[in-house]
């Protein structure tokens, strides 16, 4: 089954398989949640022409590993363990050692790196050597949510396949099918925050941000002279220090402000400055663990400023 937005990617991949010159490295680029990793696994199996069930010995998938030796021991013992924040050089070198041997079941092998844009610098430099002199029969699929974070020398050695955001109408149909219990307000908030990513939209639905989205839009449009809307917004966010949910709230606020910027008929610079403040808050939240209530008030104040800036720009 071809996922939404994958038609062009599959056409490029299949045409390359059928040609006499298959490029050895591919960069799968697009927002997180568009199914790039799913495509990579299916594309690897299509290249190997395999019907082997479960893990395939000639598909080597490189992703986040244990954070440290203690977490690695927990993994080996079958216990829950904490993941590292990036892909480490030791992981790349372990795969490179595997590449010195022949493929197990045929003449081809596929290395999937997901996400490649989260490789540490030393890991990227190590991978570059394999991309410059790829072992015969080895193909690389690099999944990247932010391709600009990759070394230019890595990007230049890859054929790029872009995965486009899903149009709103198609997104709504997908959400109604995959999350039939979600109401219209929740779907609307999820679609706004996800910006065309089905996977992200489904994650946002879990946070039930429909009421928060309605309040954010009211604040932008109406202002909040008596702080009552900001108080209600803080109430919808809650008091629990739930970092994933708070990040989703910040992403939602950024998306709503981006809508305002896109629809602005005047000078958008003040709106862009306010959006930059939201971006700053989003980056600082995991580190500083802001109080949820105070964070809600801060988001509301920035949205009030955005509404005022929009009015000034249209004068």
From TrEMBL:
Domain of life, source organism: Bacteria
Natural source organism: Qipengyuania vulgaris
Biased composition (Basic and acidic residues): 67-82
Region Disordered, annotated ranges: 62-82
Pfam families referenced in this protein's UniProt entry, alphabetically: DNA_pol3_delta2
Swiss-Prot/TrEMBL GO biological process terms: DNA-templated DNA replication
SUPFAM superfamilies tied to this protein: P-loop containing nucleoside triphosphate hydrolases
Protein name, entry field: AAA family ATPase
PANTHER family cross-referenced by the UniProt entry: DNA POLYMERASE III SUBUNIT DELTA, REPLICATION FACTOR C / DNA POLYMERASE III GAMMA-TAU SUBUNIT
GO cellular component assignments: DNA polymerase III complex
